[in-house]
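User: tokens in, sequence out, please.
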């Protein structure tokens, strides 16, 4: 057979047209072990069907990803799905034309949608007052306490008894520092999320008026009440003694803990993957509470992030997004996400299946973030925080906390300034 005949025969075997898969872009902010989870979920979804190809793209930290999404929308180049951290919820809700509610995405695609399958506390946070679910709760988390058991033993502390109250944390931090078991006793990620927003919910005190913004957008902050002042002054005192070490505004402090510099860390339950990978002899405790707060602990509020669907996309893209969200809701997928990352399972079936498998018995502490969130019915103080410009208010708080930790002002001054500046920023954002 001549070369020409061989080529002709080969060409004849190639299909005249190949049906291209619909590309679905997913911008996210996951790093380390959690980035590996994102890539595996995307790969498994792509392998599970032949119509769509999900393309995850890392866009930086949570704030950077939100800002990138806003810029892309303004330029007419928004992704199909964007992961937005919890504090960006108010920003996204206010941008009605920019997003398509996930409930509509699912029902328009003919997908069976029953929001009762999701954990109630998580669904409520990402829904409108009328109950319409706006975004898909991909990686919900709760702040918990991690501790280095080896450091505890060296410091003469019980490695099987994590501190339960903040006073116990302060005492343990000082013992760790004084004993030389570690250079510092305590560090924390996310001072705003853990020490103001969840501090308010867990101790059942007000963060702001109008049910912390869930009952109305005109909010005045209440974070300079005595309970907050006492708490932050204790942190400032520890910092001055060297028993507390500040890492940064988001999750940077996790590396201080992983390096062995500090013996105690408060951090998202979603930070678990990197701690497990480190091989540290670690323990988990519930988020500490203020022993002077009546009725504490109450309940924590969801952190982490959810997946928002951008508006103005084709019907085919929305069908693909709906297919992906249905895939994400499958019990085995949620079990994998929860058990691998430390984030909460967002469906009740995944939680029940994990519990029935004996996973929590074999992994003490892993149920803690779920029990914290579901242990008590939320009050007006503990449903969460929703401001039209919460990322900006957090930046203001962080600026004041950093001045406090540098010894430039007291906790009272820091919180008074945060309230005054934060209230002004909220009024400006509302056009008042």
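Assistant: Sequence out:
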């Amino acid at each position: 057979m001549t070369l020409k005949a061989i080529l002709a025969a080969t060409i004849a075997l190639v299909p005249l047209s190949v049906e291209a898969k619909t590309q679905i872009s997913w911008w996210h902010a996951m790093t380390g072990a959690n980035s590996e989870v994102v890539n595996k979920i995307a790969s498994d979804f792509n392998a599970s069907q032949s119509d769509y190809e999900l393309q995850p793209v890392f866009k930086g930290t949570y704030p950077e990803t939100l800002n990138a999404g806003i810029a892309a929308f303004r330029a007419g180049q928004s992704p199909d799905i964007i992961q937005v951290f919890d504090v960006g919820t108010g920003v996204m809700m206010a941008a009605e034309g920019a997003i398509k509610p996930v409930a509509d995405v699912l029902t328009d695609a003919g997908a069976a949608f029953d929001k009762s399958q999701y954990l109630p506390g998580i669904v409520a946070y990402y829904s409108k007052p009328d109950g319409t679910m706006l975004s898909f709760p991909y990686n919900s988390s709760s702040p918990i306490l991690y501790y280095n058991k080896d450091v505890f033993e060296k410091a003469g502390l019980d490695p099987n008894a994590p501190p339960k109250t903040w006073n116990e944390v302060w005492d343990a931090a000082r013992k760790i520092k004084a004993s030389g078991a570690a250079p510092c006793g305590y560090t924390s990620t996310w001072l705003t999320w853990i020490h103001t927003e969840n501090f308010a919910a867990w101790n059942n005190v007000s963060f702001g008026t109008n049910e912390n913004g869930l009952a109305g957008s005109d909010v005045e902050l209440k974070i300079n009440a005595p309970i907050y002042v006492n708490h932050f002054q204790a942190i400032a005192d520890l910092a001055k003694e060297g028993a507390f070490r500040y890492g940064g505004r988001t999750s940077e402090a996790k590396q201080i803990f992983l390096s062995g510099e500090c013996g105690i860390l408060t951090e998202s339950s979603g930070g678990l993957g990197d701690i497990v990978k480190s091989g540290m002899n670690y323990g988990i405790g519930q988020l500490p509470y203020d022993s002077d707060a009546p009725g504490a602990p109450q309940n924590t509020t969801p952190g982490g992030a959810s997946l928002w669907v951008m508006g103005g996309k084709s019907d085919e893209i929305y069908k693909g997004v709906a297919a992906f969200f249905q895939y994400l809701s499958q019990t085995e997928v949620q079990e994998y996400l929860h058990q691998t990352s430390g984030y909460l399972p967002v469906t009740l079936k995944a939680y029940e299946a994990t519990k029935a498998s004996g996973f929590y018995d074999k992994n003490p502490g892993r149920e803690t973030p779920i029990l914290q969130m579901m242990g008590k019915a939320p009050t007006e103080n503990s449903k969460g925080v929703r401001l039209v410009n919460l990322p900006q208010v957090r930046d203001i708080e962080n600026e004041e906390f950093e001045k406090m930790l540098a010894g430039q002002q007291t906790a009272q001054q820091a919180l008074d300034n945060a309230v005054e500046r934060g209230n002004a920023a909220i009024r400006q954002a509302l056009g008042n």
